[in-house]
Amino acid sequence: MLRIVLGASGAVLTAAVVALNLSPIGQIYLPSATGIVAKQMCSLTWVSGLDPDQAKSLYLDPLLGDAGSVLSYSMDEESHEVSASLLGLFWTQRAVWRDGLGCTLVQGGHGFDPDLTVPIAHDFIPMPLDTAHRDTWFDTEALDTAIASAVDDSAQNSHNTLGIAVLHQGHLVAEYYAPGASAETRFHGWSMTKSVIATLAGSLVEDGLLDIRAEGDIPALAAVGDPQLSDITIESLLRMTGGLAIAELNNGMDPNSQMLFTQWDMPHFAATRERLYAPSEHWQYMSGNTILAADTMQRRLGDSLPEQITALRARIFEPLDIYSAIMEPGENGTFQGSSYMYATAQDWARLGQLYLDNGVANGTRILPEGWYSIVAEPTPHSGGGYGMGFWLPTEATGLPRETIMMSGFQGQWGYVMPEQELVIVRFGATVGVSSRSGRLAREIVASLRPPLAAQPDATATQLTGDQPG
Fold first, then answer.
1. Which of 310, 325, 300, 122 is nearest to 217 (CA)?
2. SS3 for 374-428, per residue?
3. Rounded to 5 degrees, what angle do the CA atoms 169, 181, 170 make?
4. What burial letters (b/e) apply to 62-96, b meaning 16+ CB within 10 Å?
5. Can you say how many angstroms the Cα of residue 238 is from the centroid of all Cα atoms in its chain?
6. d(CA 435, CA 293)
7. Which domains occur in the chain, in start order?
8. Which end of the chain has less neighbouring CB within 10 Å, N or C?
9. pLDDT tens digits for 141-173?
10. What distance in Å separates the CA atoms of residue 376 and residue 74, rounded to the nearest whole number?
């Protein structure tokens, strides 16, 4: 009798496990949970350079909540791998670090080469704090108060501001780093990466290698073999009007979570989703759009991942003196261009400065004349809040009208303000509360002195076209 009971219990347990494995919880939610733990612990440790315990407590514990108690991970320092699982046994996910390529979730091989590296040949170039320029153009007490307010965690809910950098007319006028971080810390931009891909598009357009409005130009969509998808363009993808069902809800059960944490070929996953709308008919923020656009552009950079990474650096980063940027690829080698770029706060700010400098860096034109106007043009159906790879301020934000914004999960923000000649970047691990980044930006704008009052000979300076400081 006991044998029968045990046998029946075992059968029920087996059936329950099988059913769980086949359910959305087993197929998406649990692999997403172990996937984000493995991926983030790998990247935050070996790309960002944070202490693993600090990275977990800041970025993961608030995000996972009670679920974190049943998720475990192990780190192999020698092979630079992180494995995460449920109860140490189930839904195991593995992330592997490679020099110059960052960390990649490895689902099961698919040609992944753990020994491939593309090292960055130059060290990060720190910008000196220009106190003379700061004191000329800013009410320094007000500027310091704005920074202090943004990093004050004395309230019950922690905002976890980890890094801030402020440029004015290309000069570093303020920065802040939390304990454990520094000017050399590579911060995870999350969806700020989408603005990088929009910048890559501009670079390719400038060199005549890309037409963002060309139809039938998305290889992952062409591979599906559905001629109805040929009307989707790079521009519609970068503007989040591709019309495919790649919903992004950040709840661990949505198609975006499935794409990021369970798929070895993310462009193929995005391309094979159901078509819901014609291009430009409906706006919906979805990372799968940018994944498809990034894959298309990456193929124009070379035939191999090392060639493509090298070309990306030469096109965008090196002319800007950006030498910390890591664009992480997926398992099949395609850029994870929606979410996975890491760089120092100063280097993220340098990217924003390119837009203030009309697409020119160190005398070299990187972006077409007027590219700023293209990315800043409101996308139909977005309520005026989204351009092309950049967010736009609505009236409720209280920000200058011409501002464009980079934005990422957990409170990553970059503000580019042409009228004020300001770039402000803020990085953190903010979950469940406001990052207060908008207030930071408004208070920094308010701390600017009127140019004529601050610079007695400003009229002559403006007439000659020279920059003060």
1. 300
2. HHCCCCCCCCCCECCCCECCCHHHCCCCCCEEEEECCCEEEEEECCCCEEEEEEE
3. 5
4. bbbeeeeeebebebeeeebbbbbbbeeeebebbbb
5. 14
6. 29
7. 2-98 (no CATH), 187-447 (3.40.710.10)
8. N
9. 999 999 999 998 876 668 899 999 999 999 999
10. 44
